[in-house]
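URGENT: need a sanity check before tomorrow's submission.

F., can you look over the ABC transporter ATP-binding protein record below? I want to be sure the sequence and structure line up before it goes out.
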Amino acid sequence: MNYFKKILQFAIPYKRFAILNIICNIFYALFSTLSFLALIPVIQILFDKTKRVAEEPVYMGLGSLKDYVVDAFNYEITQRINADEVSALLFVCAVVVVLFFLKNLFGYLAAFFITFLRNGVLRDVRNAIYDKILALPVSYFSEKRKGDTISRITADVNEVQTSFLSILELVVKEPLTIIFTITFMLIMSPTLTLFVFVFLPISGFIISLIGKKLKSQSNLAQEENGYFLSLVEETLSSLKIVKGFNAEDKFRKKFGASTHRLKRILDSLLNRQNLASPTSEFLGIFVIVIILWFGGNMVLVQGTLDGATFIAFMGLAYNILTPAKQISKATYSVKKGDAAAERIFQILETQSTIVDAPNAIEKENFEEKIEIKNISFKYEEENVLKNFSIDVPKGATVALVGQSGSGKSTIANLVTRFYDVNEGAILVDGIDIRKITKKSLRHLMGLVTQDSILFNDTIRNNVGLGKDGATDAEIIDALKIANAWEFVKDLPLGLETNIGDSGNKLSGGQKQRLSIARAVLKNPPIMILDEATSALDTESERLVQKALENMMKNRTSIVIAHRLSTIQNADMIVVMQRGQIVEQGRHEELLARKSTYQKLVEMQSFE
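Structure tokens as predicted:
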């Protein structure tokens, strides 16, 4: 229930709807009970058992309120029977219709108001999870399945809405219906009502026994749901590889095994849940049969209860069954909702390791240099970088080269503060980047990655991501610098062309040039290029390389390069091996040393 309390925090902005729902549910419960009581005079008239009241009753205070209401009603009935029995029956039937109408009206209004609360909380929880996803560091998601995160923001949030938030209705509506019903039952016959009190605790105990394992089973179901969503996501994003390696059967088996496990868990879960309703109904009917036998004796043998009152009492007793069933179902919903809410708060309560310092400054300009001073870093146990140091002066192009796994891309991740260093410091204009706000730091930088990360949207919106409110002219200028306008202008819809999921309607070179155009439009003073041409063919590489040269003019650039032909004009080339610098200098200087760099160049000349 701790998670239920946490979820309720999201309901605070919508408390006015909760109040209106409670008011409507009070009236619903009241009219639900009165609608059954109104059947008593109908039966009494039909069987000529009406208690005749010849004189209009006088109100004597709260102590005699019940007798006054009954006598006043019977006086009105007596007056109408004396005039015309059909008229009296019509009047009582009209009262019954009005009471049932008011009951259903307030039932609808209660559901109407709670809808705004439920959907508002649903939206706010999803927004909170999405905000947290954006706030958490990249490292958090490198350890998680995407499908599991998607499952939490979809299936788990839906479970919270259908379980926890539906309880908000039951908390007032069903208990009040039971309270009002039992109150009137006690007034009508305290002896018979005792049997109802026997039913409720027995039912509650049996239902709790059935529902003990629900939370753990629900948790297993949600985890399995996240796993199979991950399989779907991986299959969709890797369909070419799956088909190319004839791996359809392997993935089919993995997916089938997952859905089979999910089916087995859900079978057990739903069968336990479905057991609640028939169990509570059977227990209710069992008690009603006892009441029927005992009350029948009071009417037929003892004569201590009139038939009309007994029939209405039976109606009220049955009226308790529906809310009792709903409450028993709610106990299951709480357990399922608790499991879903726990998974939601595992994300919401995760502490981000990459946060702004309390006194972090807003850095608006880049003026001198980037200093990487004696840094060491590890993703897990082994250091990827060891005591690494370089300076990148303003306006210079520094290239990092080396074999795969030497730590080149890690530098890009650390400079942009996707990760924090374990030792040492990275400084921009002499200020540790941990003392600069993440937003202002990244505002100074443009990033072009090896994999062109584009969105299923128009060219305009993909390129425009780099600058809010960019004009068509600015976007076109950026596309021209990136050598992308030559193919964009020939597209039927131009800037409004949708490029498909991950830009898959375009070639690799076209996608990369759009990524460069996005960085150009942002116009940052510092550019990070992480193997921006390594995945391209020779022709595309030539066009992209020209675009990169255009972009790097008058900018400070850190270039992580796989193809050494692309960085020959760099101001400094840093050769890395296993997280350390083995040599550095300009292209000609490094060739003249005939060492590691020359070997890399010779190896590539044979590729």
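My own read: Strands lie at 369-378, 383-393, 397-402, 423-428, 431-432, 445-448, 526-530, 556-560, 572-577, 580-585. The mean pLDDT is 78. If you see anything odd, call me.
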